[in-house]
Amino acid sequence: xxxxxxxxxxxxxxxxxxxxxxxxxxxxxxxxxxxxxxxxxxxxxxxxxxxxxxxxxxxxxxxxxxxxxxxxxxxxxxxxxxxxxxxxxxxxxxxxxxxxxxxxxxxxxxxxxxxxxxxxxxxxxxxxxxxxxxxxxxxxxxxxxxxxxxxxxxxxxxxxxxxxxxxxxxxxxxxxxxxxxxxxxxxxxxxxxxxxxxxxxxxxxxxxxxxxxxxxxxxxxxxxxxxxxxxxxxxxxxxxxxxxxxxxxxxxxxxxxxxxxxxxxxxxxxxxxxxxxxxxxxxxxxxxxxxxxxxxxxxxxxxxxxxxxxxxxxxxxxxxxxxxxxxxxxxxxxxxxxxxxxxxxxxxxxxxxxxxxxxxxxxxxxxxxxxxxxxxxxxxxxxxxxxxxxxxxxxxxxxxxxxxxxxxxxxxxxxxxxxxxxxxxxxxxxxxxxxxxxxxxxxxxxxxxxxxxxxxxxxxxxxxxxxxxxxxxxxxxxxxxxxxxxxxxxxxxxxxxxxxxxxxxxxxxxxxxxxxxxxxxxxxxxxxxxxxxxxxxxxxxxxxxxxxxxxxxxxxxxxxxxxxxxxxxxxxxxxxxxxxxxxxxxxxxxxxxxxxxxxxxxxxxxxxxxxxxxxxxxxxxxxxxxxxxxxxxxxxxxxxxxxxxxxxxxxxxxxxxxx
Length: 659
What we know:
By secondary structure, this protein is α+β, with helices and mostly antiparallel strands.
């Protein structure tokens, strides 16, 4: 692993398998009262990076309220939970409300080979797992047939590819929430994405050019392989002849034969002619392009440039399933690193850094966002330079040149538009953010301008005499996403914008061809997510408002829900006896640890002790400590702590009937 830079420490982007350490002030209680009796939660760790994500015993009551409130809101599709079991057996849960009743799955995962095996512990209600086929709703006609009269595909008619895997992956990053929800595609007009369903999770995939096998004659250039976006970078790394290295696989196991430091995907060996068969590679991402709409337009002959790419290789009938959540910043980096979002650290377009208690918004930052990517992953840019060196106009002219053009995945690229790195290119273009426009028409115009600028940059890079032809390029075209959001994937106007995207894809190929290197270039055409039609109104309240109405204290961002709960520690409760005077010390802390791994003390919390029919109260001091004197009158006492803006913590302590 590389040494952590300062920004990783500042932003909590480093990874750790450490346990939460006891807070310093417990030692003070031990001196004042005696041996400690500590009520805490299981410390069983996730297979990958476990800190505070998931629901522990301190958060269980608030979690139940949150889950119930979310399911009661008709906007919510599913709620996924990682539950830290009091018996040391951690488990994942999927909750959903369906016409046939509440659906529930509880399961565990364990390492198996380079991946995971899943064991179902409990199910009830409608069968969610039966609809995890990535081949579901594979055509535009099937999507439309699954939709109701309002044009919205209800969850019971949807498919959720790799459901168990993707629901568990949600919690693999230290900055993941305690639970996660995603919404149904309703509420307004236009298009949406972000969900786990196949319509939003499927992206088109075409593999073309050097090193890729052509589809058999009579196949319409289609193949039925099931592919995920994490497979793209490992496959290109193999084609480019990138050196294998020591790293870790999907389940966190060490491996000496991966192409990338965190390699969640695999090489599509059946789709390539062999390793080292391409001199260079280009990934074209048409942001938000619907695989089904694109396939339909191809059949109508309206996307000839994509068709030409497929004719020189293969198009995947079922596209590729992207990482979750199915949004832009996470999945551009999944395509470019071969790691899922909660393994490369950029877990959403916006999310919460629990250790530093701050919200971050990479997609709104737009410029200079590569630092959000964790240090223990490797982009394909970095892998290329590790193998072939870094081009420098004076110090290493034989090194490789790489470029990220208008793309959120840029770390390691010599030329990176969104990082304002314009290495050895004199014709520079300022980054253009389509989202900065305020109207749908303005956004579309800005997206067109940005895509044209991407082509301009590509030409400058391939034609520059200051460096060799690029070894690897990742280029983003944003028009299809902006138009899809504005119009919806079933809009009769949207195909015009897909045809515009096709024209730009043709221009990209022309640039490579004009440079005289088309025959030695592997080209991948894909998207970062799909797009689903909006058009139905559900609960007028947001899911977050439903949780607030239920009295849950939380921070939420991007579907992640971070419960703001108290953690209760008790000292002096291990030898209580009915009828004998006692002194109990209580520590009240925030349940989530800070950047040093310690739980911050909570001053001013109200501590209540119920002893039979009697009650005692106290408030915590600046160190989060309180003490209670009483004489036990029952064989069990209850202790609780409350504080505004936090979910309460409760505990029970057994009392002996005699010494």
